[in-house]
Amino acid sequence: MTDVVGIGNALVDVLSHETDEFVEAQGMVKGTMALIDTERAETLYAAMNPAVEISGGSCANTMVGLASFGSAAAFIGRVRTDQLGEVYAHDLRAAGVQFDTPPATDGLPSGRCLIVVTPDAERTLNTYLGASAELGASDVDPDLVASASITYLEGYLWDSPGAQLAYRAAAARAHEAGQRVALTLSDLFAVERHRETFLELVAESVDILFANEAEICGLYETEDFDTAVRQVTGHCEVAALTRSERGAVILRGDEVHVVPAHPIPGGKLVDTTGAGDLYAAGFLHGFTQGYDLDLCGRLGALAASEIISHLGARPETNLAELARPLLAGR
Amino acid sequence: MTDVVGIGNALVDVLSHETDEFVEAQGMVKGTMALIDTERAETLYAAMNPAVEISGGSCANTMVGLASFGSAAAFIGRVRTDQLGEVYAHDLRAAGVQFDTPPATDGLPSGRCLIVVTPDAERTLNTYLGASAELGASDVDPDLVASASITYLEGYLWDSPGAQLAYRAAAARAHEAGQRVALTLSDLFAVERHRETFLELVAESVDILFANEAEICGLYETEDFDTAVRQVTGHCEVAALTRSERGAVILRGDEVHVVPAHPIPGGKLVDTTGAGDLYAAGFLHGFTQGYDLDLCGRLGALAASEIISHLGARPETNLAELARPLLAGR
After folding, report:
1. Does residue B330 have a pLDDT over 90?
2. B89 in a domain, yes or no?
3. A82, A180, B214, B219: most buried by Cβ count inside 10 Å?
4. Residue B76 forms part of a structural domain
5. Which residues of A touch B109 (CB under 8 A)?
6. Is there a domain that residue B61 lies in?
């Protein structure tokens, strides 16, 4: 029995601290994700400060968070048979996530995400997809998808040729087996690149939608959050809309839950990388346990607060233990 | 003009948090370094928790510390043309360290050090040397050595075939050019494996010796620190003997300086990896600036306190800025 299976980009994060001037000089848009090619990856990396390598990838981060909460999580994603690919597989399995996608034996090297963290703790992503771009329908294990209560996909993956087919196949299989499909919009630019197909997907195949304020407004081409909220209601069963330090709004039918952000452990915001990923982990853990939406939201906020208190997007604290006070009596 | 050129193992650190039971079950001796082969590296890595990759290598850490203080530092060490080798070269150069040793185009992959950090913040090292083991005299640039005020070697390197010859050649070249040679004993087990040749080296070729209490006692086969202190005096020009939280004792001829440890920034001991490496960086920076030995020791203690306040052995704070209060008026 799998609680959640995630399909997403397999990326090793390469994190460095840089100034705002660096972000500007490199032509980046702070807080967003840009897809970069080999040449740009080399130029940018050469310009970056000394870095730290930590396994990442938005959807995989969520699966690690789920495992840390005690959920049974699996990941489908593509690396190559190289050193970064070995690191990636090790870190997922060591975190308790089932990972059986065979590594590619030829083609591009394993993907990486060059992440620039500015003094305000904001992260700006530059993704070299590498082997991850070749993920296709044949990588999706239909039995795994059918066995999972929720199949979870990241919007970032939508940029990969083949991945749209893979996702449609997975969503069909999940629904056929009576299971749910969840999607995170991932990034404002991803939404803008793929608005039409995202809208179609949300209406037709998505049961649980995650988005931040900019993304949900981008999806419905509005600058007003309340307008976006009205539009998304009815397009999917559940929507969890995050608003950074202002908490989140969770919608289901007529229900509206406004859940505040959780205080940051240690009080210091260090690096926002993975905040959305871990919010989804906490929320989905609660959801698969059958908790009410308010508690799902609180678990999401708790996990997000842990991840932004340190560098990198994989939890450093056992989330099940961290959640114990919230779950007391259950 | 180079202030310090270091010759050492080129290793990417792979750090994970583990329990004391894990250290015991894996047959490790806490706080020491063990050389491991490919098979053992694979088995141990598979058993380890999710990890973080940060460029390391004792001597290279010292060179990065020197560059952070504002010294001109260069490193000689051997990686392969692979992903970890690229990461290694990037991080050194991005830290401002000159690194011109060409990567090996065949043979073993780049070396790594599997580091287990226990809840008491102690680190236990398991080194897979890989390409680093093949470092030889031909990798040593004689002009670089002749131009550097100090040539610095790590005792760990003594285990590599060829490295002893490389070091003797470098020491001879340095002295011929009127420069100094420094050595760190690195590890109690390294001392025990190579006591005879270390004793010979210290007496014949080493001007500045770094060692912790266990290592200096091991070198002179005594359990009494004061006995070791008496023996080392006269064997080399300067000896800096570190004693963790009890500070350090620095000796030169009749001079004896007892320098206390520096308080840890943030007050929390997180990971002792690199404490000795960064002590040497601060000390050597002061020494090449012509500061008195007491101030050299204080700079060493300052740099060590920074490195043990976070995970990994490369500084996260600019050491020149951190040292400003200590150097006020100079």
Report:
1. no
2. yes
3. B219
4. yes
5. 83
6. yes
Contact call for A87 and B53, based on CB within 8 A? yes
CATH number, residue B209 = 3.40.1190.20
List strands edge to edge, sheet with B248-252. B98-99, B73-76, B2-7, B148-154, B180-184, B208-212, B238-242, B248-252, B255-259
Q: Evaluate whether B279 touches B241 at the Cβ level (below 8 Å).
A: no
Q: What is the pLDDT of residue A72?
A: 98
Can you list the residues of chain A whose pLDDT is less than 70?
none
For residue A326, give both structure tokens.
Answer: 């919230």
- Residues with Cβ within 8 Å of A263's Cβ and at least 6 positions away in sequence, in order, are A305
What distances in angstroms separate CA B318 from CA A4, B64, B77, B262, B321, one per listed residue?
Answer: 43, 11, 24, 16, 6
Report the sign of the C-alpha dihedral through residues A108, A111, A112, A113, in that order.
positive
Q: Measured between alpha carbons, how far is residue A170 from residues A148, A150, A157, A210, A307 in Å?
A: 11, 11, 13, 18, 29
Q: Is B308 part of any domain? A: yes
B49–A94 C-beta distance less than 8 A: yes
Measured between alpha carbons, how far is A279 from B316 in angstroms, rounded to an integer?
Answer: 28
Q: What is the ipTM of this complex?
A: 0.93
Predicted confidence at residue B159, as pLDDT, reads 83
pLDDT at B144: 98
Q: Which residues of A touch B (CB under 8 A)?
A: 14, 16-17, 45-46, 48-55, 64, 82-84, 87, 90-92, 94-95, 109, 312, 314, 316
- What pLDDT was estimated at residue A159? 83
pLDDT at position A160 is: 80
Specify the number of domains making up chain A. 1
- Give me the domain span that covers residue A189: 2-8+58-104+135-327
SS (H, E, C) A172-236: HHHHHCCCEEEEECCCHHHHHHCHHHHHHHHHHCCCEEEEEHHHHHHHCCCCCHHHHHHHHECCE
